[in-house]
Amino acid sequence: MASEVFELEWPLPPREAAGDMRHIWNAAAERGWLNCAGDDALETVLAVVRAAGRAACPLPVMDGFAAGRPLEHRPDLVDDIADGTIRVVLTTAGVGPGGTVHGAEAAGAATHVLAVPPAGGDLTLHRITTAKPAEGLAVPAWSDLVAGPALASIEIGPEQADEAVVLLRLGLAARALAAAERTHELAIRHARKRRQFGKAIGSFGAVQQRTARCHIDAVAAGQLLGEVPSRRGRRDWRLTAELATAYIATVATRIQLGAHHTLAASGYFEESPAPWLFRRVHADVASLHGISRACGSVADVLVESGAALPDIAMGETADRFRARLTAFLDGLACPPRSRPGADDPAIVAAVAAEGLFAMTWPAGDGGRDATPAEQLVLHEEVIYRRLPIARVMGAVIAVGTPLAAHGSAEQKARFLPLVGQGRLKACVGYSEPEAGSDLGSLRTTAVRLGDRWIINGQKLWITDAHDAEFAWLAARTDPEASPPHAGITVFIVPMDSPGITVREYRALSGAVGCGVFYDNVQVPDTARVGAVDGGWEVIVEGLAGERAAMAGLAASLHRQLDDLLAVLRDPATGTAGPRGSATRAVLERLAADVQAARQLVAALGTAKGHEARMRAAMAEVMVSELCEDFGEAALRILGPDAALSGPVEQALRAAPGHVIGGGTNDIQRGTIARGLGLPW
């Protein structure tokens, strides 16, 4: 509805360069969009703000809404704002000497300016006497105002003032994001159709990589923003809003510029909507950076108040499970790890006794049909607490889940109890010298000979193969299959089978990866999992479990952030720097990125089909690359001590492996691009 109104009243490209703000303001008043009373209106207001952003229209809907609570004792003014009698813009800079206000948005149509003191004090309402446009980036132009004497003066406390500032910043961020999103959509359509060098430009790797990056940013930002209205009234809602604002302030211009690069000359001239959207994005982000909270930035709040990142809602079922799970995990006595990555038998046994490893399997297979969201919660809690059961959790994802879906009755009876009890030592035999991310190209063969299979080939970079009891092995059973992945079959192969040779390598992370050589290795047909040539379906089932692994990785980043904050808050070791310092700026970016990653991963709990595959790829790219960014930033913040043995340097060394594992991020971004309709 809102989008239709803006398309009619504020089309892009515009009929006139500046448009007429009064028409759209009146239309907004008629539809009740300017009603600034009530907490539950924030979702509607944000929807209107986003519709305005898509039209590159600076209608100050959020200004009126932000004024609602400070003016709650003046219902006459609230009503006048709602019906458009008073067309108000907000300033947090105050009204200067002679009534001057610099750089006001939409002032050509506004009638009044409301000066909000960020730290609390006297809020004042003034009639605008003159507005002089100041030409520049913004269209319509910002204006320098002269305001008359105060028509009303209302004392407000710090909480009310800060809320108004947070809302004003949030509105600018939401509008900038919406404008950038529309340009991104234009770029996707352009990449599908525009041909260069005889083919659509969307088939070029550089365009696919850039488009996927923009899409990840846009989706993560949209999810952060969408979380804010549901937090209204909660103690942490302002931090939730500011994390969304901080993230959008970084990515909105990145999305916009990336889209412009794809649009090229087609988006550079003003016959296209793109230049107008470019102006809107950058003007709003510039304005956003000019509005500060009295309590400081996200980093200031986290360091100085002891606040933590807000929790991520995942639905009632998952939240109830989290409550039961945390009560159980709180009672575990977790000893120090003997070495990084080592599982602790006592903890494994305790978790297994609760049925947590098998929880997602069908009840008939010893599980309880837990939801994907509950599985994400389990991985979040286990990894955040650094419980020493990571290898068992990996076996559940890679072997247990696909075996429960595709294994024979005999295989389930034999192996699922071992997996559920945390007693199956298995390695995953997928990667090869010529088949890493491209599993469809694997060359290890399995040739049928009666009721047995003869396996020949080599697997590479296989984690923990040196002490595994079984290999979950993918082999080619039809060399002529088209497409190639149609000719793959999965087997469970005992690692003590004659003909298997294991060569150990030490990874950067400290983990052991192995080359595994298969020389005429014989296994019975009962070792086959699923149908002959049907291995791809089995593999995809296991890869779907990567969603849970991403939840764990996001939780690991959350824990690293909390550890970093603990160091910075410690008077003896703190190096957070003063407000406004480069260190605080980096810390704010990390906090916003971690929260965005957590939000993106949480959405995997309800995603299905094509959306689930897209979201999983986006989460893997975002979370794994954030592992690298976080490690590098922490090293710079903490200095030489961070390079000594401990969680920071261990996480940094492991980070490249996350980008590589499960299909390199370059491949994942290509998958995302094709999911958006870009051609091969």
Quick recap of the structure?
The protein has 680 residues and is of the alpha+beta class.
Layout of secondary structure:
Blueprint: H1 2-9, H2 21-30, H3 42-54, H4 61-66, H5 75-82, E1 88-91, E2 100-104, E3 112-115, E4 121-134, E5 142-156, H6 158-193, E6 195-196, E7 199-200, H7 205-231, H8 237-263, H9 274-289, H10 298-305, H11 316-330, H12 345-353, H13 372-384, H14 390-406, H15 409-420, E8 426-429, E9 445-449, E10 452-463, E11 470-476, E12 488-494, E13 500-506, E14 512-524, E15 528-529, H16 535-544, H17 546-569, H18 582-602, H19 609-638, H20 647-660, H21 665-675
Parallel strand pairs: 1-3, 8-11
Antiparallel strand pairs: 2-5, 3-4, 4-5, 6-7, 9-10, 10-14, 11-12, 12-15, 13-14
Helix pairs in contact: 3-6, 6-7, 6-8, 6-9, 7-8, 7-18, 7-21, 8-9, 8-18, 11-13, 13-17, 14-15, 14-16, 17-18, 17-19, 18-19, 19-20, 19-21
Protein name: Acyl-CoA dehydrogenase family protein
Domain Acyl-CoA dehydrogenase/oxidase N-terminal: 344-422
Keywords: FAD, Flavoprotein, Oxidoreductase
Could you describe the 3D structure shown?
- The protein is of the alpha+beta class.
- It is built from 21 helices and 15 strands.
- It has 4 domains: 159 residues, no CATH class; 143 residues, Up-down Bundle (Butyryl-CoA Dehydrogenase, subunit A, domain 3), CATH 1.20.140; 117 residues, Butyryl-CoA Dehydrogenase, subunit A, domain 2 (Beta Barrel); 130 residues, Butyryl-CoA Dehydrogenase, subunit A, domain 3 (Up-down Bundle).
- The strands form 4 sheets. A 5-stranded mixed β-sheet has the order 1-3-4-5-2.
- Pfam families: Acyl-CoA_dh_1, Acyl-CoA_dh_M, Acyl-CoA_dh_N.
